[in-house]
Amino acid sequence: MTRAIGSFAARVFTLAGALCTLAGAATMPGTGTVVVNPYGPLLAQGAALSGNTVSNLQSSTVIQLGTTPGASGDYCEIDFTALSVGAGGSLMIMSGAANQSVVLYGVDGNATAIAGQLVMLGGNGAPAPKLYLKNPNGVTVYAGGIVTSPSGLTIDTLGAAWTDGQPLVNNGSIDGGTLMWLYNAGVTGGGAFKGNGIGLATFGNANNPVNGLHFLANGLQLFPSSGSSVSLAIGHYGFAAQVLNLNVNGNVSLWMPSSWPAGYINPANSTPVLAGQIRAAGVPDPAYGAGSVIVQSTGNMSLVAGAPYDFAFPGGIVLKAAGTLDLNGVTIENGWTAAGVAFQGMYFESPNIVSSAGKAQLLTNNFNWVNFSTQPHASIGVWQLVQQSDGSAQYVAADAIAPHINTYSTLIDLNASGQCWTCVMNAQPVSVQ
Fold first, then answer.
1. Which of 78, 109, 274, 352 has the most CB atoms around its CB within 10 Å?
2. Element (H or E) spanning 3, and its range?
3. Which of 148, 163, 178 marks a domain boundary?
């Protein structure tokens, strides 16, 4: 196996238990080569199957896996040329036994374009197989396009390294059922991303920037695959500032740790100065600083608590919930500069801000504030990253100067409209002890 193949196999199976027009595009995939198959002989309807070669796929093709049940870590891999499904076409992969997984890999240098249906189905009384869709040249799901894998889905558009690859663009519907992981150079589009658990790892941006400076309208649209709640894990890494803008339609349990626990192979997240750390004199601000993360929820939002589950991002943080926002005793860190930059503080917006697991600790940049839309019903400690006389930077208690009552949605919409947002800011600190 190449490093890339081995890596994406690990991403699927290590993490599985963790949490327009198509001008010139192929109507159906080209020739497929079965390179790994522990499940026994395949069956094909609407395609020619000869040995390890699948060819002549028709507009409605079903490939059924063999009757050997899956074991931990195994999968059937089919490498396709022209791994695309045009409008009106459907490619369905059906299980032949329980616990099966399939990897579909685009190997010809072309991006994958889905305007029809790519669907995993249950067969022989077994659940649908998990799907790992891999193409380092990118994946686009067009309006009307559907990718559905109810037992779990990974879409991987990275190359041989974690910082190589192309974006995932979704203007249709991607449904990963129980768990969906996205590994991409960036993620964009106005389509639906569905999963009861959703994990995102990118070195680029993850947003849908179609509304200019009205940032709250530029989020990717996330939905539960079933029920009303999403467990969301965010991985951000690389060398440049990132914009992450996610809108959860439902309740959300949110996790963005400074380090991943054992069993996760994600690269380490880009970190600000963490609690207890001191930035040595002469060390510059990180090149990846000054990004932003906005997570909205139409329901309740709760941060995941318990070591090592802090919430760390080197840029502005906005958490906005229509229901209760529970900081859950988590340490939230975004201090990357002692200079202070507009909108690089923290904003918590909700009619009911609580911290059910004890005192939350909020560590932000010097001269930036921690803003609440309403007085929190919680004890909260606040620090700012301040440059010291020896040139180092460290966190200093700022309970008396940093907490304020300001509403992000009000300020950012005024800014987007060219109005004076600083004129309506409440500059009076409030007590959050």
1. 78
2. helix 3-15
3. 163
How far apart CA 248 and CA 87 sit, in angstroms, is 28
Whether 121 is covered by a domain: the verdict is: yes
**What type of residue is 295?**
V
Residues 276 and 408 in one domain: yes
pLDDT in tens, 130-172: 999 999 999 999 999 999 999 999 999 999 999 999 999 999 9
- C-alpha 422/C-alpha 426 separation (Å) is 9
pLDDT at 422 over 80: yes
- Work out the burial of residue 340: count CB atoms within 10 Å of its CB; fewer than 13 is exposed, 13-18 middle, 19 or more buried: middle
> Among residues 281, 283, 223, which one has the least CA distance to residue 247?
223
Q: Domain count of the chain?
A: 2
Residue 83 lies in a domain: yes
Cis amide linkage into residue 308, ω under 30° from 0: yes
Token pair in block for residue 41: 């002989």
C-beta separation of 127 from 98 below 8 A: yes
Residue-range definition of the domain harbouring residue 329: 259-433
Assess if residue 17 is contained within a domain. yes
What the block records as the tokens of 433 is 């002890």
DSSP 261: P
Query: Average per-residue pLDDT in the chain?
Result: 93
Out of 128, 163, 198, pick the residue that ends a domain.
Answer: 163
Q: Is the pLDDT of residue 296 over 90?
A: yes
Strands (DSSP E) contained in 128-179 are 130-134, 139-141, 146-148, 153-156, 168-170, 173-175
CB neighbourhood size of 19 (10 A): 19
Residue matched to tokens 């500069």: 337
For residue 116, tell me if it sits in a domain. Answer: yes
Residue 417 neighbours by CB under 8 Å, 6+ apart: none
Tell me the pLDDT tens digit for each residue of 237-278. Answer: 999 999 999 999 999 999 999 999 888 889 999 999 999 999
* pTM score of the predicted model: 0.94
Q: What is the dihedral of CA 28, 31, 37, 40, to 10 degrees?
A: 80
139/273 same-domain check:
no
Considering the domain architecture, whether residues 274 and 407 belong to the same structural domain is answered as yes
Are 231 and 266 in contact, with CB atoms under 8 Å apart? Answer: no
